[in-house]
């Protein structure tokens, strides 16, 4: 990529293609602090619907001096335009699919139904007799929970994969201009833990012997200070101005957004994600079925990741 192509991408980032995205990645490996290249590269990953977008967004935020500019960029129509067009085309293609008339297929009665009918007849016959049947109490069974085997984990894998696909884990996170709080919260959640490095044990520093001459001089100064007994004027009691502390009446639930719920999910904070969707059910009752399905899928992941 030459300078002319790079300047053209700065002026028209929406014209970015996959080849140029790869070239920008190589540029960043050599010049990691080039903020403009990071912003355009981020746009390329977003266009590709890449799973690396969320990680790269965190990295770009770390290299950006003013994160509000980055937030305005990723929430602009110019940034999100390509993917919106892609989804619009997908919706149109789905609408054009012809659906044939469905045929109702009735299955023959299963052997289980016949067994149930015979059991019902036996119960009815037994109910007609006057004989009292003495039922012996069975000893209570103590069920010890066992850890899932490798086969059980393998059987649960399709269920986990289906839940991850429905929850769109790894998809690029989308923010709107009103979600600055969610963006800041996400950056806070995604902070990397500091690397623990084993430092070489330092040799204990031997205390330097204090110069006896300087110590005597200090003591002499202290004695002179005590003898002179200087009077320190007390500070006048001036009235302290009252501090007005305004309690925020805004409920924390008003800050909850669907994007923030997805952020908790991406961080595998399943309990917080469930709580977030429960708040969203109260905020948006018309989407309660959708949010309830999300909670169910999150619980599936939670059970298989503990």
UniProtKB/TrEMBL annotation:
<protein>
    <recommendedName>
        <fullName>Tetratricopeptide repeat protein</fullName>
    </recommendedName>
</protein>
